[in-house]
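Why does this matter for the project? Reviewers at the last site visit asked to see concrete outputs rather than summary tables. In response, this paragraph embeds two records directly. Each consists of the residue sequence and, immediately after it, the corresponding structure tokens. Nothing has been edited or filtered.
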Amino acid sequence: MEQKYELLRKYYGYSAFREGQEELVDAIMSGRDVFGVMPTGGGKSLCYQLPSLMLPGVTLVVSPLISLMKDQVMALDSMGVPAAYINSSQTAEEQHSVYARLRAGVLRLVYVAPERLETPGFLSAARETDISLLAVDEAHCISQWGQDFRPSYLRIPAFINALPARPTLAAFTATATPNVRQDVERLLGLRSPLRVVTGFDRPNLRFEVLRPRNRFKCLESLLSARRDKSGIVYCATRKNVELVCERLREAGFGATRYHAGLEEIERRRNQEDFIYDRRTVMVATNAFGMGIDKSNVSFVIHYNMPKSLEAYYQEAGRAGRDGSPADCVLLYSPADVYTARFLIESSNENPDLSPEERRALAEQDLLRLEKMVGYCETKNCYRGYILEYFGQPHKSSCGSCGNCAAEYESVDATREAQMVLSCVIRARDALGYYLGQSVITRVLMGGRDKRVLGLGLDRLSTFGLLKGRDRVFVQALFDELISGGYLVIRPEHKTLEPTPKAREVLFHGGTVTVRMRLSTVAPKAERAGAKPSHDRKNARTDGFDEADNDLLDALKALRLSIARDEGVPLYVVFSNATLTEIARRRPKTVDDLLSIPGIGTVKASRYGRLFLDTVSQYPG
């Protein structure tokens, strides 16, 4: 198996495998099915691409999005590997050309959308081809209990059964709970697979949750601190994408947009503008991102809370794919919970499902939402919360996320807690029914909106008792009363009701303490928002002097020029991490260049002299 190390060096520029990769490659080469669960950026694609260079015949890769196929094929072409894709973006002539190359045996890898598997043209070509390996990327899409269920993935087993011989199967995903993993194995029909779970942790990502008073101003502040960086802003709805993108452009940011309501031509153009760094900020719904192999995304900001922790981690994981430090910031408001509930209820109206199936899916989605809200409101380590959800052991503190890095103070909030509990009870006595948290909050803070005045709640003795108090503190107080079991939310009407435990605080001397982050208590800190994990001078350049930074800038300029001339994304030439190593090591020969991770013989031959000439102009 020495060949695998030679190919790893030649095509990928690495002298060693990452965790889990070699076991998966060896199992595939022995003809055994595999199931790899590896974090985004963990090198899943190499696990099936490398065997394709050693196996006879062709490797088919089932992939969910056109953008993924294009990016992967472009990257393979740049390494000298013959590859192609088949999807709905192609003309009939283009598809027939791929079928002809497939039959002729000149391709090593072919990416195919699951919808194409049972079309007559593709099935005919596949049946006349020696298929050694079938790799299923984003394999969680086959499970209806996964966050990205796609019915078209259910066609994969029928396609396999229609082939003259069953190929080795390889399934890969980055986000799947234990239950979803079992579902994937069963539905794909994996036979005694080698299971490799390398973990879900992404140490280079810094997680933060903010509760801004003004969401857009907070976003503007976050982006202002990252003007020289590339990132994604996720919104829950198309309407928010349009509004946020327009306002960012008015504020002078290089923003573009992406959602399913746009024409295909505009979606493709906007996506390419972002990938080729003509626009630095992509404002998008969750329709954007799966399979986007853009290595220099240095931040992902969620303008709204996603519906599940799986979706959040998958979207946040699009930052820092090259291993560089990156920020994942979520702007949270309790109102997001109601939006998410509405989206869940709307998405579970599939007429192809029975009422029982729709009910079961809705219940599953609501449980996921509950976990997502728990992440937003936890006072503990954000990274630990995520890893706990996916069943991975972890330290109690990561030392770097927003909670672990923050300072806290414990505030005695017993008196204010009594005010809240009294208000809940007095409103119930006055109206005959309980109210939701938002109305109770407005009563306590002296709000005179139509609902409060119409119900006569301004006449309650608790009206305005918390007027002038910081909203962050008031929200933290409600969170503590709910998580501490003093109040309960009734899901059917979203009303707040006191529990027997509330009597301890009201009548028996019980106390309530609220743990407050100092950074959220201080108004200036909130206006500034989450700081970048690394500023421009220090990003990926620890130990650099000014000359090193100048060289790195020159290398990036050269990469940009090459990428534009060839019409490819920047990372297809070299990743940020590779450029940083070039600037750090200052290679003088092609052999020196080949010792840098990420530079194989193909790319060294193609680009090496240009980069060596640039290095020579910046003596260390």
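We now turn to the second protein, recorded in exactly the same manner.
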Amino acid sequence: MKIIRAIMIAVLSCLLASGAALAEGPKADPEAQITALNMAVVSVRHITAARDRLVLDQEYSQIVNNLSLGDLDDAPEVMGVWTRLLDAISACRLSDEERQVFAGIYEHRQKNALNTVLSGMRPSMGSLRHFFASLFSCGVNAWFGVRRELADIHRAAGEKSWELKKEQLTALHELQKELLAGSWLLLNHHGLPDRLRVTQEDLDCLEQAVAESDWGKSSQMFALIENSFSAFPPYWFYRADAAYRAGDDAAALAFLDRYDAVWKRVLRRDPCRARADRIRILLDESLSDEQTRALVARIRENTSPRDWLDNLFCGTMLWTLGDRDEAERVVRGNILFNAEREVSTVVLSHMERGDFDRDTFCADLRAALAGEAPQTPEGELLAAWFDGRDGLAVKLASEEYRRSASALPACVLWLTAREPGRASRERAEAWRECFENALSVPSDQDKKALAAAGVRAAQGNARASLLLAAAAEFGWNGLKDPFAAAKYYRAAAEAGSVPAQERFAALCMSGTGTTRNSAEGVRWYQIAAEKGSAAAHYELGRYFRTGQGPARDLAAAASHFFAAAQRGHASAQAALGELYSKGAGVPLDWYEACKWSTAALLGGAENARRTLNIIDGKGMLRKRRLSPEDRDRAAAEGRAIFERGGK
């Protein structure tokens, strides 16, 4: 009986012990908790440094909401801060529509990078595995790229709506301080070493090193903060990436080894982990098939089904390893999830037919990348105009305008006519009126056109920025915004668009949508004038004729009026005729005054009639300035100038 009782007590004790263990569950790794909190702190620092909702959205999806914090029940203060942080960031996130715009822009930037790498590659060089690794390592997911390419993305998507408000930044700053204090609390609670803690000063130095665009300088900066971040896994990844981009492959591999040594799974999907393994496959030629397969498996664990470039990397690596069915399944996922279609279709078609002839594959890929523009009327029109094929663009725009008289073709025709030497000023004004008249009838075509312009503007296309500027200035599709107009005109001007240079100069002169700055306006007019802009020469003539103090220079005014007059600018011809009639900036010459005033009047400048009336003695003094013969000869030359369109 005693033996039975002892056995029962022993069994019951075991059950109670096991039950207690089950109730308690596995203990979270305290160092992983600290690493997770530090990653959250760094992520918030990225947001507050950029002051931008695009960065916030990426940090939220890739880091903040992706963290596995483990069991924080024994640190309720930290859990409370964490909950408030999630609420604060969630309130600032992008809408679905804004996220789609950003995703479209970033996809095209990735494809642009892919096209750049493809154009510089020799398909016959290296193994097939190295060829694919080099090709599909060219881009990075948006979490890495958004901060470095923020200015270009803003040019496409519109900067004003992305900025975080002052009170939102203040709240995030305060929560960041609380998280720093929370990491200190956990360090003390678990008795962990102080090397695991980061400070505000550490964060500032790390942010500066990560943001540095000179990779060699960035590598040196990372070396100086090693003591503060040696236990922080992303630090070693950033340092390895900087060394890789600076061309120091040996250092990059050494830093990847350090990254592997301290890395902990604190993210459900870790973008640094996926990127680090891609770099290792690209750089380490000593990897065996099994090692490569293990790295590919880990990349896939840390890759979203919509990270299409990572999926192409994994799919092509699996193909070279002989896992062909799985390779096709991975690439087909890009199409199934609508992550990307054009490039994935080319890769999949070659996989399905078992043919990876590199020359043929590269040719097919180039064709797919070149054919991204939709083959709709507006897509074909914009592709032609953005690429400078003006003959085709004008033909398509004219045909489209006859069919629908909508804003897009009218705008293209107007902006094309404003290019130096393209059309008369009157013709350009007529197309501007057609564009304005069509603005009251918004269409799906217009929305698609502006979305396409946003993508191309992000890639630095001057005409795309010019189109967006016109939309913002005139309120096309409800987008009237003088500040956005000035921003896009400036972007197009800096990219070399003469009409944009003229218009941005005018905005600087008037202070519309930008700071009023006459010197800046004159500078842009001079740039446009050097490229043959009659309008810019005319505006410079007006400035020097009416300017105050040192700005008034009648000789310079006459020179610019003459340059514009030779290009058929009727108002400049009238102004030049008036200067000749007064001997202002040029010698007094009634013959020249008559010639240029006649050309101006025929061109529609009615104010030239006053100078002709004075020449004909119709003024107060009733005195003719030219003999009938000279008057007729000068008028004949003026008519010839008008008929020639200038000279």
